[in-house]
């Protein structure tokens, strides 16, 4: 494996500088601001937006702009934030912007207005994920895991071709779990980054389209490129726990999320639909310790397997089909949606299910920036 070419640590007083570049393709426009990417932080308390001008950060409770770094007109196709802190991973959009190319990751400290780490690779970076102790860089056929403390490479993982940059990481201090595609279509490899334990799950027959872990890494949600089923696994022993049916027709599932209380799963798709599914209560009693899970797997043959059929969604909401939305959860049965069209929506479902109620719909570029400082980690 030779994709990484260098790793440097540096300090720059002016990181975002003026550049001219060609018009990017496949970009949603709203007014004169073009959105290159939208991304939730780890607990849905905020989201980041990469634009052709720079990046913006918004907190969600209530929705407000926290950071705007657009004055230097330098675009970023990836903006990954660490909770609501001052730390970001940035990847340039690559359109005639040689100073911030798509094969480099810049770790930016907004508190000091400087980049303290630059990671370079021989191929384009397609995703970055952050934990308080790890930086995970996803390339098309490999994943690099760095220790955040010393910026050393902890592991290099080979994957099947992964143009979507599929990867997710847990956030609990006690468990460092990462999931990414395996070496064959439909496979997911789940890794305990502390103990270097690997579990390969045959999740689907076709390629994986999206995946998500719970904050503690115990549950894994997956969907394939077919887009008809969403499956929930015990990430530690690979047991299929529950299966949801989104629909009968093929569809691209844009995003899937498991609520922090592990009661709900939400998914958005190209059909202009948001579906919320109900997790069975007994899932919470499934083994969440790797040693326990390993012991259980030894007697798996004499235990009854779950025989639940695929279940329909509990609640639904209609969205514009022209826009990609990513989904997250808010408090008290609320679902949060951020769209590539520059929109933020907050929806609520009740105990009866059915059609959800839209509580809030705003264009996030029109929000006034607050003077509140972000947390320094």
From TrEMBL:
Q: What is its main location?
A: membrane
Name of this chain's protein: (rape) hypothetical protein
Instruction: Please give the family membership noted in the entry.
Output: Belongs to the WD repeat PROPPIN family.
Recorded GO molecular functions are: phosphatidylinositol-3,5-bisphosphate binding; phosphatidylinositol-3-phosphate binding; protein-macromolecule adaptor activity
- Membrane topology per the record? Peripheral membrane protein
* Name of encoding gene: BnaA03g55190D
What keywords sit in the KW lines?
A: Repeat, WD repeat
An example GO BP is: autophagy of mitochondrion
Xref: PANTHER family: WD-REPEAT PROTEIN INTERACTING WITH PHOSPHOINOSIDES WIPI -RELATED
InterPro entries linked: PROPPIN (IPR048720), WD40/YVTN_repeat-like_dom_sf (IPR015943), WD40_repeat_dom_sf (IPR036322), WD40_rpt (IPR001680)
Does the keyword field hold Zinc?
Answer: no
| GO terms for cellular component | cytosol; phagophore assembly site membrane
- What Pfam families does this protein map onto? PROPPIN
Query: Among its keywords, does the record have Translocase?
Result: no
Q: Which Gene3D superfamilies match?
A: YVTN repeat-like/Quinoprotein amine dehydrogenase
Q: Which locations, inside or outside the cell, does it occupy? A: Preautophagosomal structure membrane
Output the superkingdom of the source species. Answer: Eukaryota
């Amino acid at each position: 494996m030779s994709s990484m070419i260098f790793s440097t640590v540096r300090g720059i007083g002016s990181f975002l500088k003026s550049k001219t570049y060609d018009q990017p393709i496949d970009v949603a426009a709203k007014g004169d601001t073009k959105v290159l990417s939208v991304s939730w932080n780890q607990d849905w308390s905020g989201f980041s937006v990469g634009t052709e001008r720079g990046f913006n950060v918004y907190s969600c409770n209530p929705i407000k702009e926290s950071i705007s770094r657009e004055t230097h007109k330098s675009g970023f196709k990836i903006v990954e934030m660490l909770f609501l802190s001052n730390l970001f991973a940035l990847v340039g959009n690559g359109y005639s912007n040689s100073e911030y190319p798509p094969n480099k990751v810049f770790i930016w400290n907004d508190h000091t207005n400087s980049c303290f780490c630059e990671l370079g690779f021989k191929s384009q970076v397609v995703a970055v994920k952050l934990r308080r102790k790890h930086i995970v860089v996803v390339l098309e056929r490999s994943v690099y895991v760095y220790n955040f403390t010393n910026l050393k490479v902890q592991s290099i993982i080979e994957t099947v071709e992964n143009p979507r940059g599929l990867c997710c990481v847990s956030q609990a201090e006690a468990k460092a779990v990462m999931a990414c595609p395996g070496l064959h279509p439909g496979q997911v490899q789940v890794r305990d980054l502390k103990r270097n334990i690997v579990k390969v799950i045959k999740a689907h027959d076709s390629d994986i389209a999206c995946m998500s872990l719970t904050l503690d890494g115990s549950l894994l949600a997956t969907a394939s490129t077919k887009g008809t089923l969403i499956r929930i696994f015990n990430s530690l022993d690979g047991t299929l726990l529950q299966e949801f049916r989104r629909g009968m027709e093929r569809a691209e599932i844009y995003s899937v999320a498991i609520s922090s209380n592990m009661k709900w799963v939400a998914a958005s798709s190209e059909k202009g639909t948001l579906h919320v599914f109900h997790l069975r209560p007994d899932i919470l009693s499934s083994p969440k310790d790797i040693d326990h899970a390993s012991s259980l797997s030894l007697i798996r043959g004499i235990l009854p397997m779950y025989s639940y059929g695929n279940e329909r969604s509990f609640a639904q909401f209609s969205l514009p089909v022209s826009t990609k939305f990513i989904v997250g959860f808010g408090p008290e049965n609320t679902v949060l949606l951020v769209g590539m069209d520059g929109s933020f929506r907050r929806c609520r479902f009740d105990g009866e299910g059915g059609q959800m109620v839209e509580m809030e719909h705003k264009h996030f570029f029109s929000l006034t920036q607050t003077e509140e400082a972000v947390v320094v980690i």
